[in-house]
Amino acid sequence: MARRSLLTGDERRRLFEPPVTDREVARCYTFSAEDLEWIEARHGASNQLGVAVQMALFRHPGFGWRLGETVPAVVLRFLADQVHVAPSALDGYARRPQTRLTHVRQLHERLALRPFNRTDLRHAVEIASAAARSTDKGGPIVEALIAELRRQRIILPPAETLERVGLAGRAQARRKAADDLLASITLSQFERIDQLLINDPALRKSPLAWLREIPESPSAASMAGITERLAYVRAIAIDPAIISSIHEHRFEQYAREGAVAPAFLLSGYSVGRRRATVVAQLIFLESRLSDAAVDMFDKMVGSLFAKGRRSRERKYQASSREVSQIMRLFSGVIGAVDQARVDGGDVLDRIDAQVGWWKVLAAKPKIEALAALAIEDPLVSAADRYGALRRFVPTFLEHMRFRAGTGGAPLLKALDILRDLNHSGRRELPNDAPLPFASKHWKALVKPVGGPINRRLYETALAATLRDRLRSGDVWIEGSRAYKRFADYLLPKDEVAAEALPINVEMGIYLAERAGLLDQRLTAFSRRLSKDDLVGVTLKGEELSVTPVKANAPDEARSLDRAIDALLPRVRITELLREIDALTGFSSMFRELRSGKVHDNPSCILAAVLADATNLGLERMANASQGVTYAQLAWTQSWYLSEENYKAALAKIIEVHHAQPFARHWGDGQASSSDGQFFRSGRRRGGVGEVNAKYGPEPGLRIYTHLSDMHGSFHTRVLSATSSEAPYVLDGLIGRGGGEHYTDTGGATDHVFALCHLLGYRFVPRLRDLQDRRLAIIGPKPRQKILEPLLGRPIRVDVIEENWDDVVRLAASIKAGSVAPSVMLKKLSAFKRQNRLDMALAEVGRIERTLFTLDWLESPELRRRCQAGLNKSEARHALAQAVFVHKQGRIADRTLQNQEHRASGLNLVIAAIALWNTLYMQRAVEHLRDREVAAPDELLAHLSPMSWAHIGLTGDYLWADAATAGGFRPLNDPADRLYRAA
After folding, report:
1. Strands 951-952, 571-572: parallel, antiparallel or unpaired by DSSP?
2. Beta-strand relationship, 951-952 and 713-720
3. The pTM is what?
4. What is the residue-wise DSSP string for 217-275?
5. Is the four-CA dihedral 488, 494, 499, 503 of positive or negative sign?
6. pLDDT of residue 685
7. What digits encode the pLDDT tens for the residues 189-229?
8. pLDDT tens, 18-31?
9. Residue 542 in contact with residue 536, Cβ under 8 Å?
10. DSSP 36-76
């Protein structure tokens, strides 16, 4: 039976072997003056170098110089240089074994070291167990164990012993976590937990499998299915507070495992581990089902208003003939009135004679109906579908536990009234029922003066208000993750100062500095504008006109691109992925959810990733593949392909890509761009996507991607087709160094300008709607008259001053990773009434947007850089369409998780292609230069590694034949290919 392993090969080399890079060797093996003096006291060059090697290896890795171990040449040279002897002197060391043993004893005494013995095993397991409280990954566990043994000056035992101790510690930590999690569970709860894994004849599956099948399609039946599952989970009555009894990462591990493990597999676990996994899954499911119910409610309420709007539009279209008739009638009336004015006749007689008074009177009801249609409130149109609303709202309200601050009390009371009416069957609302609607017009519609409350309008308006309050965080759900109280997303106030922001957070200093800079920049801009000294910018009347910039490549760059492309080796996508995996080791980042071990067949990982990337699917991938089966791929997808693993694998590829010298021709890795790409969905109904007029009548979704200026595709996420891109701009930037970030106009909002500035990023959107974005000022208007048509209202400094601490707290929370920027920006945008933080952030954003607009107008180079950055995103989109070719490029997956896997797989394969192309483009350029073909650096900046004509993306996937032998492929010879074709 194979020995269980805790570490990967890379981890063993990193932890157990001496370093081989110059920087690490110098860090680990630089001796002090006292060390050198002690070493030089040994007799002879061989003894001096030998004892130096012993001392160095006792310090790192910590085993000492083991018998038969070869010292890396780079380490030996470095040590020999310090003791001023030749590296070859080591050959004569320890010809007498006693000499070596004597030096070992002396080093033990000098370094205060002692050997590891059997009595240390229990303590070592405890150290490993403490490290394993938060992780199952072997690397951190063994690293913590080694660090503690070094601290206690214990010589490390053999590597095999360290791994066995790590495995024992991890097992102990798992048992301890399971015991802690289950400590408060009662016997009756254990009985129900155990029953979840037993097949239920009525369900034709286990209850746990049924609970995990959460309906996705927005419908009343789906809402009923979600709430039924939620009630089932709540009936078991697991207290979510028990999460605090174990480390959050350990709980997440249990929950992830419970989400994918089938009932038969869980049944084979030890009792404690099985129950702990199911309990964690139940807690997670309660939160997930609550969020799914709110998401479903949001979609269905939105659908009511969308259908009401479309119904109104259809009525407009149907009334076009009547409108034409009324317009002709009205034209005749005007003509009759005008004629009566000219000849002095009676107006009414003239209308009656020329038009017919009876026709005018007959048109009155039609005119009133059209007028009412034109001003009809969306609430009225949505209330026309009241029957559809009643099929899901009562169920939703019955199962949700809403909470709100003091300002939300009227809404909660209104919801309680509706619940009482639903229980009692009564229809009439009490006359004093609260009207918690932001719109005064809605209040007037729902409760006319002197009249009773309209039940249909009231319930429809209440559903819409509840949806908006849930989005904003004004109202939250008990136990939810996605719909928590707004303040719960932010750092505690006493932790804000620890997150240093790249700005001066003293409000007075900050505002004074920005006010001075803004005044200075506006003065300089007005001077240049009056002199017509702005390249590509003219003032026509009261409107600015900016000549579009095109970042076109010169003809020489296109010719060079064709020459390089012709030299790129022809390669199958399976071979390309194998070669990039051999270079980066990205497949080792896909660890099993249970044990954290690496897959024993990397071909399964690569095939499963490619199935996502090409939209082929697992079954068709298995049919088209050699060396992998459908069962292997299905297991791999369930246990190895997670968003966490996808991100880790992508980071490996991007790290190697950015380290390539050739990629420096395109940038330094600091600048980036982001853009959305539309993908059609496989069906017209369901939760896959929504219709967006921008992309035509077909429903679909968008994949929003961040791309570095070196063409590294480093972040991606799935958006609805109707979502704004602006909230997601910062999601991919957090954790990266500051630099310019380019987006299209759709990504530009004042909130994004503000947060980018507060977090140290330079936001550079392509501005196309300058007339709608007025310049802001702080204080009185400037004296320059030429600026007046361009200025908007002054900055509300009082709002910024009043809410400055909350603005800083929000920025610090995002920087610390407490919450994703998109979550907070969407909540702020969801407030229907004035929110002070929202207003303050927007005012800060107006300052930064004005300063950027001045930069944009004054610098054609900035406009060119932005265009070039967005062109890189367009090149990536073209490659994405080529890779994502199967099923006509339609995403047919119903669940968001599967959609995200498709997007992540596609992004990973694009990153691999870009890295592979970069490597061979460099070799192609060297080949051309060796043959004295001009390939200057300034032309290389216009090239892109996003080509794919030389890559076989489809066909049979022969993984066994794709094993790489190492080294580079020979470049393609175009002439040879033509001869072979002939």
Report:
1. parallel
2. unpaired
3. 0.85
4. S-SHHHHHHHHHHHHHHHHH---GGGGGGS-HHHHHHHHHHHHH--HHHHHTS-HHHHH
5. positive
6. 46
7. 999 999 999 999 999 999 999 999 999 889 999 999 999 99
8. 998 888 999 999 99
9. no
10. HHHHHTSSSHHHHHHHHHHHHHHHTTSS-S-TTPPPPHHHH
